[in-house]
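To illustrate the input format used throughout this study, we show a single complete record. The first block contains the structure-token representation of the backbone; no residue identities are included at this stage. The design step must infer an amino acid for every position from geometry alone.
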């Protein structure tokens, strides 16, 4: 199998309506949509705020942040997570944002989540997606709270380009956090890198070498139309195929898993030809050129208590006001299940008339 063949096709079906919603005798249900996909993975955005200003995500001046009273408090977040796990079949929770490390009491939210048991009787898998700033100081406490895995975002290891990309001079802090996460044994530590045309294509190979040397799993993400509106053009984005081509200049790559199920990344086993002792795994998340919507198992909760059934959804289901008006757990679960039922078959980036969602990525939770 060639590396390119392995990237194709994204299982982007034209799905038929197959499923039906049902409540089980014990009062639980699954987050199923009308195309039969079942959500098991919940992305919880803990804040829309951030201490970086990545150009593909936010404008330099930041965004209009949510007022505190509109954001869920810890008790509300813990309640919705409990409902997701105990009543709706969620098995994995990823905390994100904005920057989730800015959320006070992150450790106690993770601790409460870790105490929950899934429909299979297992503990919930917990993960964090972070820009890494301050993670080195908190990694032990987070691990103790029950955190299983961490994804750290890093788009370049060049100090000047890091400043240009994030508009902040904080590279050293991120590198230190990557070392700390690897040392803490959060295996695998995943590194997320977005590739922007004319900006950091030159970083593809150095980033890969850096991560392989440290035993971290680097995954390149195709840039999506979710940031400032002038930042993305379908015609000049850097595609998965182009990323692969660059990687093949230095690494021998063989497909690492097939099928990949609901996992967004296609993975390759990589060997550095300059030093064949250096081996590891590299991934590409080809959300635009090889969409994996047909296998998507995600549901999203924003920091103001809204359910989104897709990153690109144009509709949302607010649970916060229902909850504050006294809704029961079962009523909240039913509203959540109803929101997921309406999930579209695909994100539609390539459809004529595609419209970027009104919420930016940082306010949805990536
Ligand atoms: N602040 C944290 C971080 O950067 O990891 C968590 C939130 S951030 C929105 C989550 C992920 O989304 C990051 O890996 C980031 O690189 C990615 N991201 C942000 N904007 C994106 C875009 N327009 N296209 C693709 N990925 C994007
Ligand atoms: Fe902040 Fe993450 Fe967006 Fe960068 S990608 S601005 S770190 S939320």
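Output of the design step:
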């Amino acid at each position: 199998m060639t590396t390119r063949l392995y990237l194709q096709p994204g299982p982007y079906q034209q799905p038929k309506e197959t499923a039906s919603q049902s409540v089980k005798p014990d009062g639980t249900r699954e987050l199923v949509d009308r195309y039969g996909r079942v959500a098991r993975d919940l992305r919880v955005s803990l804040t829309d705020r951030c201490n970086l200003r990545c150009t593909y995500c936010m404008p330099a001046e930041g965004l209009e942040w949510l007022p505190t009273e509109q954001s869920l408090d810890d008790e509300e977040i813990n309640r919705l997570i409990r409902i997701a796990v105990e009543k709706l079949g969620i098995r994995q929770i990823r905390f994100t944002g904005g920057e989730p490390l800015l959320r006070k009491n992150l450790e106690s939210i993770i601790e409460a989540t870790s105490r929950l048991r899934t429909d299979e009787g297992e503990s919930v898998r917990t993960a964090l997606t972070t820009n890494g700033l301050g993670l080195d100081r908190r990694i032990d406490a987070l691990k103790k709270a029950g955190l299983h895995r961490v994804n750290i975002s890093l788009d370049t290891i060049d100090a000047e380009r890091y400043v240009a990309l994030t508009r902040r001079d904080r590279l050293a802090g991120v590198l230190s956090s990557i070392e700390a996460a690897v040392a803490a044994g959060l295996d695998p530590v995943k590194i997320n890198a977005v590739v922007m045309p004319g900006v950091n294509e030159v970083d593809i190979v150095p980033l890969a070498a850096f991560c392989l040397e440290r035993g971290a799993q680097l995954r390149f993400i195709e840039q999506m139309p979710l940031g400032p509106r002038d930042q993305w053009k379908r015609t000049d984005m850097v595609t998965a195929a182009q990323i692969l081509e660059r990687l093949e200049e230095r690494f021998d790559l063989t497909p690492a898993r097939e099928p990949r199920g609901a996992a967004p990344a296609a993975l390759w086993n990589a060997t550095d030809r300059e030093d064949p002792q250096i081996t590891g795994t590299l991934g590409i998340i080809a959300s635009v050129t090889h969409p994996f919507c047909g296998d998507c198992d995600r549901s999203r909760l924003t920091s103001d208590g809204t359910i989104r059934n897709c990153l690109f959804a144009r509709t949302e289901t607010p649970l916060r006001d229902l909850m504050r008006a006294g809704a029961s757990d079962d009523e909240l679960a039913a509203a959540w299940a109803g929101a997921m039922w309406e999930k579209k078959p695909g994100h539609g980036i390539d459809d004529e008339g595609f419209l970027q969602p009104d919420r930016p990525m940082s306010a949805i939770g990536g």
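Structural context for interpreting the output: The longest strand covers residues 266-272. Confidence is low (pLDDT under 50) at residues 9-14.
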